[in-house]
Give the backbone structure.
Amino acid sequence: MEEKGSANGSPAVTKSSAKKSRVPPQSSVDTFAVQCNECFKWRTVATEEEFEEYRSKQSEDPFVCKKREGIECDTPADIEYDSSRTWVMDKPNIPKTPKGFQRVIVLRKDYSKMDVQYITPDGTRIRATPGIITYLKEHPEYSHVSPSDFCFASPKVMSDTVPDHVEKKSPGSSVKKQKKST
C-alpha cells in the first residue's frame, strides 16, 4: 500500500557489516497512500508515521474513507493507480518503526525490487534482522525495543507501473556481466 514517485537466502548482517553512514540513504518513496477497504479508492497520507499506523493495523482494522475527516467513499480519489509514477505495495501488518529509528526503502536502479534498511538513532545502517539483534544487544538503552519491531520484507514493485525505458527482467533471468575470454 505504499507508492513511490518516479524520480521499491541473503547473507546475514553481522556487527562488522552494519555501517555508519555519513549521509543517510534517501528513501525512494515520495508519496504514501492507503486504499479504502470499501470503495477501493486511494487516499494520500500526509506522513510516513500516519501511513505506518494504518499499515500496522491493516488486518484488524482496515482503512476506510470515513476514518479521515471530511472524506467519504463518494469523494473523488486523492490519487489514481496508473503508470504516471512507479507504485510499490507494502505488505500489511508491518510493525510501526520504533521511535528514534528510521525505515528506509530504496528502489534498485533496475526497478527489480526495493531494499529495506533501518537507520538507528546513532546513524548505523542495518540491512537484516541479525544486525538488529546485535545492535540491540550492544545498546541496552533500547531494551524496550524488540527485533520483532523491525521488518525487512520489501514492498512489491508493481511491474505495470515501471517506466517503459527501464529494461524489464524476465523471471529467473540474471543480468550478470559475462567474463571476457582472453
